[in-house]
Design goal:
Two copies of one chain form a homodimer.
Chain A (H helix, E strand, L loop, with lengths): L1 E6 L3 E7 L2 E2 L3 E3 L1 H9 L4 E10 L4 H9 L7 E4 L6 E6 L6 E7 L19 E4 L4 H10 L6 E5 L2 H6 L1 H9 L3 E5 H8 L4 H11 L3 E5 L5 E5 L2 E5 L13 H16 L4 H18 L6 H4 L3 H15 L7
Parallel strand pairs in A: 1-5, 1-9, 2-7, 5-6, 9-10, 10-11, 11-12
Antiparallel strand pairs in A: 2-3, 2-4, 7-8, 12-13, 13-14
Helix pairs in contact in A: 1-8, 3-5, 6-7, 8-9, 9-11
Chain lengths: ~300, ~300
């Protein structure tokens, strides 16, 4: 069973979409990553922070899935990170209405002893200095470090972001952010610029339009599953990252060929995430459903042209 | 060798993109369809109209590729259809600056005798009444009728458009037009609404985001090849249609399984079209290049997850 370290937010989200709205519900990058990764044979630990307003039922969600929460710090008297957002009608863009950092403002991550030799590290969206802190605590160089980030850090912490990008094997980033980071419109060229920054692999996430995996001169594409209804995109990118790293950690094979499979597994997990609010769909997701939908991904993409 | 009837415009285009502009060059739906289809083993005839300002060198382009132009009417003293457009910076949208219908205004199509028994009919973008006229001239019901249309006809000729849609097997349409035609945002639901209108198959073209093929409850996805540079998207949808129908006519196999291959062949041809202005790239395209890029499509999409 491969070890996986997950760093990222554990949060309360309040979400409004054209289909409805929620009060404060469970959210955060590390939450979605952990839930998705728990569908694979991995020994995962979440490194994050919450306040003592974080309910025990939410903590149980992690422990019920054998996710190590010994490094999920609970700050006495502290309040959990809170994000409130409203999606536009096409669900492709959103406005952030509230961001309360709360306990996240002074967060200093500590990787649990038992996971300092993890083969795979998933650095979910957080301040790049926190992401760097996790890398530095690893006892030996992990086989694979994957970093997810967003435009907020490009705008507000570009220097430490570039420092941590240097250290990672895989950067996952969405299309607009890839363009912002590289000043290149073409995603092919953007990926090449990112290679020059350090990573050997680049995953560019295009939401409902799928994800591209770049490696040297090669490229692999995983579509998003065409769904009748996308209900709430919150956490889809993190769920993708959880499926991606969960699969890679469980197989121990980090080749480009196997990374293609990982991108499909990530897309598969993300296709469930968007069907309900927040983590709702992931929480009740069964192994048979995951397996059945993998068949759909195969039918969606595999063809039979004989090549000469 | 399967027979293919192609109806659509043969035109002069003047194009402006962020990368440059052209004077009047060869364009038109039937032109792009014919050029793409000529890469397959088909006996194709173009049904269209031009003025006597249409140069012999352009006519030779068709005949050099064994495309039957006996039904490409040349109107004495008439002027060829002219379209001028300017693309926005992201190439995903464009403004039409000039549309001169000219000889197209009074066009009455005549399918050549030798092609009235064609197995495959490709109704390229034109007035739906003209498209219907072609169907009615076929000696027997073709095995496969494919129709391409655009929002202009939904706005200006919805009733005859709905009449011709009833008669076709495959509708190819872009994503925004599918939404307009059905009033459904989800492309999955839009495809189901289109099934109710008549077609058994629906291809929804998403430009740089690929194409979806729907049949009953099944769906297949062909990505667009990620390119370093897209130079001019003019004709890409028609080139896709030409590769799609050219392949189907050449194989004589119109099953859903083979239609998946056809969608890949269509995407493959379209990936060349966008690399230069207008038909430039298609005119010098070699068989080896087409074959080589098919390998890239396979590498782009094929993965190796064992399913349980």
């Amino acid at each position: 069973m491969g070890k996986l370290v997950i760093v990222g937010t554990v949060a309360f989200d309040a979400i409004e979409t054209p289909f409805g709205k929620t009060d404060k519900i469970l959210g955060g990058a590390a939450t979605f990553i952990g839930l998705a990764a728990s569908h694979f044979n991995v020994d995962a630990a979440v490194v994050s922070v919450v306040g003592d307003d974080f309910p025990k039922e939410y903590l149980d969600i992690f422990t019920d899935r054998d996710i190590d929460v010994s490094a999920l710090e609970v700050v006495p008297g502290g309040k959990t990170f809170f994000w409130k957002g409203k999606y536009h009608n096409d669900l492709n863009s959103r406005d952030t209405l509230v961001t309360e950092l709360n306990v996240l403002a002074d967060f200093s991550p500590v990787v649990p002893e038992g996971h300092r030799d993890a083969e795979v590290v998933m650095l979910g969206n957080l301040h790049p200095s926190v992401q760097m802190g996790v890398i530095q605590q690893m006892a030996k160089k992990p086989k694979l470090v994957v970093l997810d980030t967003m435009n907020f850090w490009m705008d507000n912490a570009l220097e430490p972001l570039m420092e941590v990008i240097k250290k990672v094997d895989v950067l996952t980033i969405n299309d607009e952010e890839a363009r912002q980071l590289t000043n290149e419109y073409s995603l092919v060229t953007a990926a090449q610029r990112i290679f020059e920054m350090g990573p050997k692999y680049v995953v560019i996430k295009k939401g409902e339009h799928g994800a591209l995996l770049f490696f040297k001169d090669e490229v692999f594409f995983a579509p998003a599953l065409p769904l009748k209804e996308v209900f709430d995109p919150t956490g889809a990118g993190d769920t993708f990252a959880g499926g991606f790293t969960g699969y890679l950690a469980s197989t121990g094979n980090h080749s480009f060929e196997n990374m293609k499979n990982a991108v499909i597994h990530g897309s598969n997990m993300a296709s469930f995430c968007v069907e309900r609010f927040g983590t709702e769909r992931l929480l009740e997701l069964k192994r048979e459903e995951v397996s059945r939908r993998l068949h759909q991904f195969k039918a969606l993409t595999q063809f039979d042209i004989e090549l000469k």
